[in-house]
């Protein structure tokens, strides 16, 4: 993991939403695509925030927020890193901030990808076929 950079393992297939999107609509859109985070960008593609779909769903169920509210009501400062950063630095930042996803941005703050713990795990785990062979009775 020491030689890997964020760009080597980040996800580039990112579903983005705008800050003025209704929370319920945004959650539905992201979950339909199988993603776990709402990646919020402005009209210029600049990262505004990344919010856990699970966290928002829990807040909806406990009635802390409403489906019709705009995402901008629940946003904070984004956790972000540059694509050229070393992967171990990104992992350290995620641990320090207690987040499970970082927005990967260019010099202007525009989103170029997302890095999650799952991305990091895939980068260090053996391929699935190797893991399956280890478990097979021999």
TrEMBL record:
Gene3D superfamilies: CBS-domain. Keywords: CBS domain, Repeat. InterPro entries: CBS_dom (IPR000644), CBS_dom_sf (IPR046342), CBS_domain-containing (IPR051462). CDD domains: CBS_pair_SF. Pfam families: CBS (PF00571). It comes from the Bacteria. SUPFAM superfamilies: CBS-domain pair (SSF54631). The keyword Repeat applies. Residues 10-71, 74-130 form the CBS domain. This is CBS domain-containing protein. It comes from Nocardioides aquiterrae.
